[in-house]
Specification:
Elements lengths: L2 H25 L9 E13 L2 E13 L6 E3 L6 E4 L3 E6 L2 E5 L4 E3 L5 E3 L6 E2 L2 E2 L10 E2 L4 E4 L2 E5 L2 E3 L7 E2 L5 E2 L6 E2 L4 E4 L1 E3 L5 H37 L5
Antiparallel strand pairs: 1-2, 3-19, 4-18, 5-6, 5-14, 7-8, 9-10, 11-12, 12-13, 14-17, 15-16
Length: 241
């Protein structure tokens, strides 16, 4: 197979993966605290053969858009949105996980948990609200209190490299080898959750651009196939035929 076909195929393969990412972004336009993603590409130069330099397309990973999503009011006093940097700490059977999705509730033991039932961590561990303690108030610094006084303080952490966080189920992240650092002055809002930062119009535009680029690469491959076929037919003819 000629090098031009390799180049065209590498482009199409990268575009197919990019289309998957764009489609996933659009599917999560209403997912709380979801961060849009995009492919990261680079030029891959194959080892030269007979002084030929072959430049291919290679996708090397994903980049997450870390911009804050819009804060959406819910009316639920246990919902909390983070403004600026930070992640809530959640205790799961697989260890600590981190999230910006602050839709919380109380379980049968009156512990503050996520919608999946994982306990939300405070500065002193799990947070349990007293039964019949009255209305719950959550201050901007994460202090939780009711009519009986302070119940606990939500733990909010951040990381040196947020792009290195790995997605897990239910809007959670794993920290890999990074150590979480407590945010000194978190900025939280009660009765709100952070929405998705996906911009649907931009993603739809990207989808159309990717589709056109894929079709263009397909036409290029078709022309290359015709050229190679014609070349083989011409060279395969016997002299004088």
């Amino acid at each position: 197979m000629e090098n031009s076909v390799y180049v065209g195929l590498s482009r199409q393969m990268a575009l197919r993966r990019e289309m998957d990412i764009v489609a996933n972004n659009i599917a999560n336009v209403n997912t709380p605290a979801y961060k849009a993603e995009k492919m990261v590409f680079r030029e891959f130069v194959r080892e030269p053969e007979r002084d030929e330099r072959i430049s291919l397309v290679q996708d090397v990973g994903l980049a997450r858009d870390l911009r804050e999503g819009p804060a959406e009011p819910t009316g639920n006093p246990l919902d909390v949105a983070i403004h600026g940097e930070g992640y809530f700490v959640v205790d799961t059977p697989l260890g600590e996980r981190f999230t910006r999705h602050g839709r919380f509730q109380l379980d049968a033991e009156n512990r503050l948990v996520t919608s999946a039932g994982h306990p939300v961590q405070g500065e002193g561990g799990e947070i349990t609200l007293p039964i019949d303690g009255g209305d719950v108030s959550i201050a901007s610094d994460g202090t939780i209190s009711n009519e009986q006084g302070v119940v606990g303080v939500l733990r909010v952490v951040n990381f040196e490299d947020e792009q290195a966080l790995r997605k897990a189920a239910n809007g959670l992240y794993t920290a890999e080898d990074q150590n979480p650092q407590d945010v000194a002055r978190p900025n939280l809002s009660q009765g709100m959750i952070e929405g998705s930062n996906v911009q649907s119009i931009i993603e739809l535009t990207r989808m159309m651009q990717v589709s056109r680029s894929y079709q263009s690469a397909g036409r290029f491959l078709e022309k290359e196939d015709e050229r190679i076929t014609q070349m083989i037919t011409t060279l395969g003819k016997a002299p004088g035929a």
